[in-house]
Design goal:
- By secondary structure, the chain is of the alpha+beta class.
- It has one domain (about 5-85): Winged helix-like DNA-binding domain superfamily/Winged helix DNA-binding domain (Arc Repressor Mutant, subunit A).
- About 50% of the residues lie in helices and about 15% in strands.
- A hairpin with a 2-residue loop joins strand 2 (about 60-65) and strand 3.
- The protein is elongated, with a radius of gyration of 18 Å.
- The relative contact order is 0.14.
- The model has no long low-confidence stretch (mean pLDDT about 90).
- It holds the Pfam family HTH_5.
- This is Metalloregulator ArsR/SmtB family transcription factor.
Length: about 110
């Protein structure tokens, strides 16, 4: 039962930070060099690296090295999976978790 929830909790944890949400928003426009991301924030390069590691580890962002810089891009498939999951848990449906088993309280 909880597998689809466990699969997505890491994404929500990764997004539970203002800077990381802003980074995802920036990457929605396309690939960016870490230097360009760093220009938008008042943080150090090691702090940016920490945020990017979290976003990459959950699979939402991909990075590729080019010289001394890393270029980051949004994993659109993972982003779509997250959107689909969020939609599925916020929409009434026949296979909703609330409809599993029988109610024993007598109220429905």
């Amino acid at each position: 039962m909880g597998n689809k929830y466990a699969e997505n909790v890491g994404l929500f944890k990764a997004l539970a930070d203002t800077n990381r949400l802003m980074i995802v928003d920036m990457l929605s426009c396309g690939e960016l060099c870490a230097c360009k991301i760093l220009e938008k924030f008042h943080i150090t390069q090691p702090t940016l690296s920490h945020h990017m590691k979290i976003l990459c580890d959950c699979g939402l962002v991909s990075g590729r090295k080019e010289g001394k810089w890393t270029h980051y891009s949004l994993n659109n498939d993972k982003a779509q999976d997250l959107k689909n999951f969020l939609n599925s848990i916020t929409t009434d449906k026949e296979d909703c978790i609330c409809k599993e088993g029988e109610c024993t309280c007598g109220k429905g």
